[in-house]
Structure formats: structure tokens, C-alpha cells
Design goal:
This protein is of the alpha+beta class. 71% of the residues lie in helices and 14% in strands. The N and C termini lie far apart (116 Å). GO terms for molecular function: proton-transporting ATPase activity, rotational mechanism.
């Protein structure tokens, strides 16, 4: 082997040795990079899972809250409808009373609402047709505890659903069932609600 061949052989051996070191160092670095990437990837995956779980929980919580609000709204609407139906049913039951019971109820209402002065009582067209024969006298007896009270049955009629209207000069008191139920609706709703939902 000549001197040149020895030099070339030495250079080749050094090059191979250096190449192996470089490859070994590169493999080591690659391993570290892969390990670091795996650690970082695992950390990111855990963060994403945690965020996803939080997002899913937030969505579920919002959905549950919305469902509870909707349920409360539906229940409230149902209760209001039930109360309204009960109140309307009570008013209708008054209108559907047999004549004798109906006019006994009217007399009780007259006794309660009549003022201690002279006035007129106005009925609906339908009620005027079915007034008992001596009803004006019965009204007089019903308000006899008010010495100056006097009510004459009016010749006119009003478009009311039942009950009556009292007229004292320029003052009218609407005692139709619709007006009385409307005025007492809040109080009636409280009572119906207590009966229906607190038992």
C-alpha cells in the first residue's frame, strides 16, 4: 500500500467514523425530538380533551337550563289555562243555572251592590224575557235593609252576558257577570291556583 493509499484509507476511515457519529447523533436528536413531540402531543391532547369535556359540559348545562326554563314556561302556561278555564267555567255555570236559581243569585247580587238611593236596574234582552212575574217586588224585599234604596226595572236592555247594570242618575255600576269576574279575576286566580296546585 503506497503512501497515497494510506492517506486515502485514513481519510475514508475518518469519514466513516465521523459519518457514524453524525448518524448516531442525528438518531439521538431525532429520538429526543420525537419524544418531545410525543410529550407535547400528549399534553395538547389532554388539553383538547379537557377543553372538549368543558365545552360539552357547558353545552349540556346550557341545554339543561334551557329545557328547565321551557318546562317551567309550559307548566305555567298550562296552569294559567287551567285557571282561566276554571274561572270561565264558573261564570258559564252561573249563566246555565235554572231560572229560579239564577234569579235568586241575581237578588243576592242586588242586595250586595245596590246603593241606598233610587235607581234603575237594567238586564240583558234574554234575562228581561225570563224575569219572574213579581221580580221588582222581590228586589224591593232584597234591599229592604237600606231604607232609601229603591230600584225600578228599566224598560231598556243592555248587551251583557248575565247579571245587571245599576243606574243612579249619571252613574252606572256594571254588575254583569263578565265585569264582576274580570274585576275579581286576580283574586279568583289566586284562589283557583291554591285549590288546584297547593293540595
Amino acid at each position: 500500500m503506497t503512501g497515497l493509499e494510506k492517506i486515502l484509507k485514513h481519510i475514508e476511515d475518518n469519514a466513516l467514523e465521523n459519518a457514524e457519529k453524525i448518524i448516531e447523533e442525528a438518531n439521538k436528536k431525532a429520538g429526543e425530538i420525537i419524544h418531545a413531540a410525543n410529550v407535547e402531543g400528549e399534553k395538547k391532547r389532554a388539553e383538547i380533551n379537557s377543553r372538549s369535556a368543558q365545552d360539552v359540559k357547558a353545552v349540556l348545562d346550557r341545554g339543561e337550563s334551557a329545557a328547565l326554563l321551557q318546562e317551567k314556561k309550559i307548566i305555567l302556561e298550562a296552569k294559567q289555562q287551567i285557571m282561566s278555564d276554571a274561572i270561565d267555567g264558573a261564570r258559564k255555570s252561573l249563566l246555565d243555572l235554572p231560572d229560579q236559581d239564577y234569579f235568586e243569585t241575581i237578588l243576592k247580587m242586588v242586595k250586595k251592590h245596590a246603593l241606598n238611593q233610587q235607581g234603575e236596574i237594567v238586564f240583558s234582552k234574554d234575562d228581561r224575557k225570563r224575569l219572574p212575574g213579581q221580580f221588582e217586588k222581590e228586589i224591593k224585599n232584597a234591599i229592604s235593609d237600606k231604607p232609601d234604596a229603591s230600584l225600578r226595572i228599566s224598560d231598556m236592555s243592555r248587551d251583557i252576558d248575565g247579571g245587571f247594570i245599576l243606574i243612579y242618575g249619571d252613574i252606572e255600576e256594571n254588575c254583569s257577570f263578565e265585569a264582576l269576574f274580570s274585576a275579581a279575576r286576580e283574586n279568583l286566580q289566586d284562589k283557583v291556583s291554591a285549590l288546584l296546585f297547593n293540595s
